[in-house]
């Protein structure tokens, strides 16, 4: 129970929206053909696709909290259609063609679902700025340009003056703009996906999986107040999977923090150029900051990454992040000294040692899709959907691209893992020290 996801804070994405429908908790022992653990993008995509492939099957989905308050609803809301670097690593760019196929397929799948079910999630095909702060640190941007040219993708290289007109700040020295990114309210998106599952899928919220028990011909998943007996299970718990499977240690949980302002007043907007909504990612995602200007005239800032190996984030850690966000926002927008953040919240991401996902068959009864490495909406959507095809032996043209990404490397246990993560974060912060 100590390893269940817990954020001692409230997501700002939900602040101006009515409470979403809460699905019942599991309070009995039930039978199903498949049980899915985790109602994030991968888990819901897997359940939806499996239900379509096998409409006679009964599928149960277990969620520790609620779908819209989970990590999937707490991110920055970037649905990315092109690979980019995470931190100073260019692991994704080395397999750019496979990642591009998968990310764009995931984005197209989400767009089809949003349109078909009329999911109100502030869908905004705004593109993305990939921004560099420091002068003379062009290597990562140059590699990204080379990768985009190799893929024949459109992009714009913008200087400081051009960025000031687009973003309202001279904080950034240079940026690459790519059009293939959609911005959303992620909490409303995941809530809409959960509310529109097929009839043969049942979602149980506030039903954390506490143990797996393999028996002849199937698996039983136990919760605090019930159990699901199924032929097979799909693990969509991402970085926290190792707590259910102690011997399968290929992902580590990190926490990131985001802050959101109230809508800007007319007086505050007058200090900025006329801007449409936009989103930017930093060249170093560990040291730098992700920023958004939303359709409803808010600023979102995501910065500060810490280890969260058990998935628990304290109020004290949130307070520290909020203070750092306030200081950074003053540097980026000194003309908005009277703008304060109304919410600061956290969410966990999964990182793997070599940038590859943990995807596929773990044993005869268990499959998994995890290892999003901080860019999970489109990636995990297509990973979950393809895993359903793979699990039932259904051919799919993108399975080869998914398998080409390789497998996540093994990670050592604590305390070695803790020391290694601390060292890796310190290295990233040092390499990106000029980006803050």
Name of the CATH architecture: 3-Layer(bba) Sandwich
Low-confidence stretches: none
CATH class: Alpha Beta
The number of distinct β-strands equals 20
The fourth-level CATH homologous superfamily is: FAD/NAD(P)-binding domain
Content of β-strand: 15-25%
The oligomeric state of the chains shown is single chain
Number of helices: 11
Largest sheet: 8 strands, mixed
Q: Which structural class do you get from the secondary structure elements?
A: alpha/beta
Mean pLDDT across the residues is 91
| Helix content bin | 25-40%
The end-to-end span amounts to: 37 Å
- Give the tally of structural domains: 1
Shape: globular
Rg, Å, rounded? 21 Å
Stated plainly, the CATH topology is called: FAD/NAD(P)-binding domain
Write a short abstract of this structure.
With 436 residues, the protein is of the alpha/beta class.
Structure description:
This protein has helices at 41-53, 91-94, 96-117, 139-150, 160-167, 186-195, 266-269, 315-332, 377-392, 399-403, 416-431; strands at 6-7, 29-37, 59-62, 78-80, 128-132, 156-159, 174-178, 181-183, 201-204, 211-215, 218-222, 227-235, 252-260, 278-282, 290-293, 299-307, 312-313, 343-351, 358-363, 366-370. The model has no long low-confidence stretch (mean pLDDT 91). It is globular, with a radius of gyration of 21 Å. It is α/β, with parallel strands linked by helices and 436 residues long. Strands 2, 3, 9, 10, 11, 12, 19 and 20 form an eight-stranded mixed sheet that branches. Strands 6-7-5-14-15-16-13-18 form an eight-stranded mixed sheet. Helix 1 (41-53) links the parallel strand 2 (29-37) and strand 3 (59-62). The chain has a single domain (6-435), classed as FAD/NAD(P)-binding domain (3-Layer(bba) Sandwich), CATH 3.50.50.60. It contains eleven helices and 20 strands.
